[in-house]
Design brief:
Length: about 180
């Protein structure tokens, strides 16, 4: 009898999923967790009903304005118009039950590992960086983040001049902190 109860305990422990292999590592799924966290907070702030349909509307609306890695996340979960798959329910249904975004992203990772491979680009500190030492690609990225472009820019100095012109508008604190303007 004692042998049988020990066997049932061992079987029960074997069936309980191990938390160590399933949980997310530090820094993993940063785009998913950040984006979904802001979505959840905006739903609470705007007093939106936590139904799957209302959450889906809010998600699609937020994804229309998303850029860069967040837009790619929206594409992977099917919340953009050009998405090939549609797994929005994997987000909306758990959110309607107030499931933590970390768990939602963990489940999304199991469906599509690309979701957790997304990482934010490192932000450039415009108040201290020497623009002349940046690559043209990075200068273009700064302008793109501001929603601007540099038509007719052929050389690095053209991009630097454009950034310096627009910095007071898009990064006023950085513009006032710079001494080389």
């Amino acid at each position: 009898m004692l042998y049988l109860s020990g066997l049932s305990i061992a079987l029960a422990l074997a069936l309980i999923p191990s938390n160590s292999e399933a949980s997310l590592k530090e820094g993993e799924c940063e785009v998913c967790i950040s984006f979904m966290g802001r979505l959840y907070q905006s739903l609470k702030d705007d007093d939106i009903k936590f139904t799957s349909a209302d959450i889906e509307k809010a998600l699609v609306k937020k994804c229309k304005d998303a850029k860069g890695k967040e837009n790619r996340l929206c594409y992977y979960i099917g919340a953009t118009s050009d998405a090939a798959t549609k797994t929005i329910n994997e987000v909306t249904k758990p959110l309607s039950y107030h499931v933590p975004v970390e768990i939602i992203c963990e489940k999304l990772k199991k469906k599509d590992s690309q979701i957790c491979e997304l990482k934010y680009d490192k932000q450039v500190d415009l108040s201290t960086v020497d623009l002349k030492k940046l690559k043209v690609k990075d200068l273009k990225k700064i302008l793109e983040e501001w929603g601007e472009s540099c038509k007719g820019c052929a050389e690095k100095s053209d991009f630097i001049r454009k950034i310096n012109e627009l910095m007071p508008k898009y990064a006023p604190n950085a513009a006032s902190a710079r001494t080389d303007l």
